[in-house]
Design goal:
By secondary structure, the chain is an all-alpha fold. It has one domain. The protein contains eight helices and no strands. The chain is elongated and about 60 Å long. It is found in: Membrane. One of its GO terms (molecular function) is proton channel activity. Belongs to the TMEM175 family.
């Protein structure tokens, strides 16, 4: 089986393409305010301010994909051997990354309405799934490349923290969708810090 998979180069190239597309799709969810041809500057400013959930959800989703890419880069940098389970784990992880624009659009559209709770539960669970897929990718990597266990321990720990935190965010959404969104923001800000990169 191993003879069919020569190394991690194609995984890295394919994955980087998926990450780039996912980042591009995120910005498409922000729509210009519709104020009509005769709209005033004040109306435009008000319309832009009204879109703050779109800006925040875009920023958080961008950070999610960015942190996912950083973690993926760390993992692939350690891989020396590739097998079918590792390819499947990588594919599932990319599936969760490419899915992120959808819950992002839901939050942008529904955060302030009666459906805000449901929107944030979906968003938090999408992030939870992304963290769980990352843990699976680490496990598949370490299983085939045991020498990577120590190096990848940090990123695996952070992903496990993410699973628990996103589950908590889903619960908090029933009390306050906005607080839940800010909690997700806190997670990604914490993860983006260099000392939490896991290396």
């Amino acid at each position: 089986m191993l003879s069919f998979f020569k190394g991690p180069n194609r995984i890295e190239a394919f994955s980087d393409g998926v990450f780039a597309i996912a980042l591009t799709l995120l910005i498409l969810e922000i729509k210009a305010p519709n104020i009509g041809e005769n709209g005033t500057s004040a109306a435009l400013w008000a319309g832009l301010a009204h879109l703050w959930p779109s800006y925040l959800s875009y920023l958080l989703a961008f950070l999610t994909v960015l942190v996912s890419w950083i973690g993926h880069h760390i993992i692939i940098g350690q891989v020396r051997r590739v097998d079918f389970p590792l390819l499947l784990a990588n594919g599932f992880f990319l599936l969760t990354v490419s899915f992120l624009p959808f819950p992002t659009s839901i939050v942008a559209e529904h955060l302030r309405g009666e459906s805000g709770t449901a929107a944030m539960v979906v968003y938090a669970l999408a992030n939870l799934l992304n963290s769980a897929a990352f843990v699976g990718l680490v496990a598949a990597t370490v299983h085939l490349n045991p020498e990577t266990a120590v190096v990848l321990a940090g990123v695996r720990r952070n992903a496990m923290i993410g699973i628990g935190w996103c589950l908590l965010c889903a619960g908090v959404a029933y009390l306050s969708p906005v607080v839940s969104l800010l909690m997700v923001a806190a997670l990604w800000v914490w993860w983006i810090r260099p000392q939490n990169a896991g290396v």
